[in-house]
Specification:
- The protein is an alpha/beta fold.
- The chain has ten helices and five strands.
- Helix 1 (5-14) runs antiparallel to helix 7.
Length: 227
């Protein structure tokens, strides 16, 4: 048995650029999706999650180049609790993680005068919809009458959210840009906690499972998902 099966599956599937590429491209805004050269998508080493939170989160950092040159970073944080975090500070965590990413990047590019853009994405597969604020400025205690005047001077960003509880099975199954393995893994993230009800759901996904099995090394990948 695997003690952290969702964590292991996340890394095994989405830690491979060929499977992460379609999912990430489907999440980001279309203009950004067109501006990046997705064939250059590269997994970067390391984790930026606080040690005390690694039982709740797993993360992956990818880099890609713009079609006209330069580098962008895509940070994917996997929230693998069954319910959303209750302290409401996910945006603050993401700000800290982004700062750590930039620190590492600066160590490798000491002469750079600019920083790469980071797109923060939270992937969540709990049983109830995500309820946390998605914008960092929503966490700031600023009187409403003052907020318009100070907005240019405070940190502002919003993270992208992939909430599997709000995506229909048909949409997951038919995601054109996702590989069959990525689609099957997403289904497992969404439904594997349903216990006995999971097997009938899996039966409705057998066409996707067969597609996975037919791919190079597909039987090994299918066994990994099922385990």
């Amino acid at each position: 048995m695997i003690s952290t099966p969702h964590d292991a599956l996340f890394k095994a599937v989405l830690g491979q650029p060929e499977h992460a590429r379609g999912m990430l491209r489907a999440i980001v805004p279309p203009v950004l999706a067109e501006a990046l050269d997705w064939q250059t998508l590269t997994l970067r080493p390391g984790s930026f999650v606080d040690a005390a939170l690694r039982h709740q989160h797993t993360d992956l950092l990818y880099s890609a180049t713009w079609r006209d040159g330069g580098e962008a970073l895509v940070y994917l944080l996997f929230e693998h609790q069954s319910t959303p975090p209750t302290e409401g500070l996910m945006a603050y965590r993401l700000l800290r993680y982004q700062d750590r990413i930039w620190e590492h990047w600066r160590a490798d590019h000491p002469k750079a005068r600019t920083l790469p853009m980071i797109i923060p994405i939270v992937m969540y597969h709990g049983t109830t919809p995500w309820s946390e604020p998605r914008s960092f400025e929503a966490l700031l205690d600023v009187p409403a009458g003052v907020r318009p005047a100070v907005e240019p001077y405070v940190v502002r960003f919003t993270y992208l959210l992939l909430d599997l509880s709000e995506i229909s099975d048909d949409e997951l199954r038919d995601g054109a840009m996702r590989t069959a393995l990525a689609r099957l893994a997403a289904m497992c993230f969404k439904h594997a906690r349903t216990g006995a009800g999971f097997l009938p759901i899996l039966g409705r996904w057998m066409n996707v499972a067969r597609e996975v099995a037919r791919a190079p090394n597909g039987l090994a990948a299918l066994a990994q998902v099922m385990r």
